[in-house]
Amino acid sequence: MSAMPTRKILHVDMDAFYASVEQRDDPSLRGRPVVVAWRGARSVVCAASYEARKYGVRSAMPALRAERLCPDAVFVPPDFPRYKAVSRQVREIFLSHTDLVQPLSLDEAYLDVTDPKIASPSATATAQVIRERIRADTGLTASAGVAPNKFIAKIASDWNKPDGLFVVKPHQVEAFLTPLPVAKIPGVGKVMQEKLAKLGIATVGDLRGIALEELQQRFGSFGAALHRRARGIDERPVEPDQPVQSISAEDTFATDLPLPELPPHVHRIGEKAWQAARKTERIGRTVVLKLKTAQFRILTRSHTPDVPPASLDEFLRIAVALLSRVELPDDTRYRLVGVGLSNFHDAEDDERQPGLFAGEAAPAEA
Question: Which of the residues 22, 51, 108, 271 is marked catalytic?
Answer without folding.
Answer: 108
